[in-house]
Amino acid sequence: MKRETQNILLILLGGALVKIAVNGDYLRYVKPAQQPWIIAGGAVMVLLGAVAIVRDLVASRASHDHDGHSHSVRPAWLLLVPVLAVFLVAPPALGADSVVRTEARAPSTAAAANAAAFPPLPAGNVVPLTVNEFVSRAGWDSAGTLNGRTVSLTGFVVHTDGSTLLARLVISCCAADAFPVTVRLRGGEADHLASDAWIQVTGEVVPGTATKDNNYTPDFTPASVTSVPTPKDPYEY
């Protein structure tokens, strides 16, 4: 690869990193805490590429003045048009296909070891919970703090093995380590919705349904199912 192409590629990649960090698309790949590092890394790449291009242009002009020959960088730009499109068009976040291909994971060993430490749910007619916390409580909370309580969950629809699931993907660092947590929706209210459709459901857990045999996927009886926009940050942590 020519030096011109390398330098332009460096600027494009750095610019793409800064762009996704500023507009929020980086949340499809990593946790929010990584934003400053993405901006800093992208800015450094743009700076290095720009400095290298200026240096090469100065050297090329000096060489042209000396021997009357110059080298066009136009072919490098033409070669990088498809690369530009790849870097600046962000793919969607992981969704239903990833859930179907990956078994739902049991709650963490820390949650299991501290099963008795789950605090009571706050007061209120409807308690909003993350899907990860709901699944952890359903599988390990020996005090049954979910039983008889109406909770609100937000996630995307997954259809698999004749069941309709509400799912979220949990990441520790980035999308590469994502694993699904799932809730089986009873009643059929969400059966007609397309996979990957985002919904908010309110209702109650079916006690005792989250077991090792079903990868800790509790049953949930919805009182309401509402379509919602795809959140800017699609993952849980």
UniProtKB/TrEMBL annotation:
Q: Where are the transmembrane segments?
A: 33-54, 75-94
InterPro entries noted in UniProt: DUF1980, DUF1980_C, DUF1980_N, UPF0703_membrane_permease
What Pfam families does the database record attribute to this sequence? DUF1980 (PF09323), DUF1980_C (PF21537)
Feature: compositional bias, Polar residues: 211-229
Where do the record's region annotations for Disordered lie?
A: 210-237
Q: Which UniProt keywords apply?
A: Membrane, Transmembrane, Transmembrane helix
**Does the record carry Transmembrane helix as a key word?**
yes
DUF1980 domain span: 8-99, 146-237
- Asked whether the UniProt record includes Transmembrane helix among its keywords, one would answer yes
UniProt-listed NCBIfam families: TIGR03943 family putative permease subunit
Q: Could you identify this protein by its name?
A: TIGR03943 family protein
